[in-house]
Amino acid sequence: MNPKPVLLTGVKPTGDIHLGNYFGAIKPAIDLFKTGEYQTYIFVADYHTLNFIQDAEEMRRLTRETVMAYLACGLDPEQAVIFKQSEVPAHTELCWIFDTITSVPYLERAHAFKDAEAKGKEVSVGTFNYPMLMAADILLYDADVVPVGQDQKQHVEYARDTAEKFNRVFKSETFKLPKPVISEDVAVVPGTDGRKMSKSYGNVIALFGSDEDMRKSVMGIVTDSSGDKPENVYAMHKLVKAEGELMSLYENNRGNYKALKEALIADLTAYFASIRAKYVELKENPSIVDDTLMKGREKAKAVAEAKMRIVREAIGVA
Question: Does residue 242 register a pLDDT over 90?
């Protein structure tokens, strides 16, 4: 019996989880996991996050909340491997090995570096070198597929290039070439101001905030007074309720934006009720997250260390 293909995804714990994170990343990853077709690895990319968050308590809090979010949203830790990148030393070891066969001009093509440079920012070595750590993240586990958005396809391309170059330079077949899985129908969630929901825009609706926080955010959604239907409200509403059910609601409340926002609050609350309840349960029982991460670390380390034995043999340091 052939083993299942490996699906791997990483998530940076860079801020409180919001609806955009859920529909854009968490739900698509868990939907793929629930097909049962893949051996799934999901890691919290805390070393990548050091490029953005350099506060120990904040890092610890956000890391735990990220794990709790995935568990609350339906990821089964008995069937998937959930772990922290920082707890598997092979990630940074393999990154260094990849550094030795990677040129500066090649890394200068990375989107993150070019964006930072275009904005006149001083670029850290971590930001410059992040494609190699990402390649290590992916290749350590012989990932077959990596779910990404269209704007993240380059991450997998860097991993493929690096795998090919390593195999060529060291005359080996050490690494397989991963493929990106790009879901064309992943929802782009509008923020409260109509732009893409993003922490950097300050336009998010927190998934695990209080009921009052959600209410305040929804009532603050920017509406266009020139139309009968508030497009920003409707765009968010159709993510949690079938459009057929919404037609009569919006028809019967033309121009009554307050009533439509109240309806959206009710439907968001109902849609996320079980997820939010599970999150509270996990928060009240921290040992569940501790146990999940401990088991995930041991499983991930075993796989990664087995791969590194092959790598070390290939480069002549074993």
Answer: yes
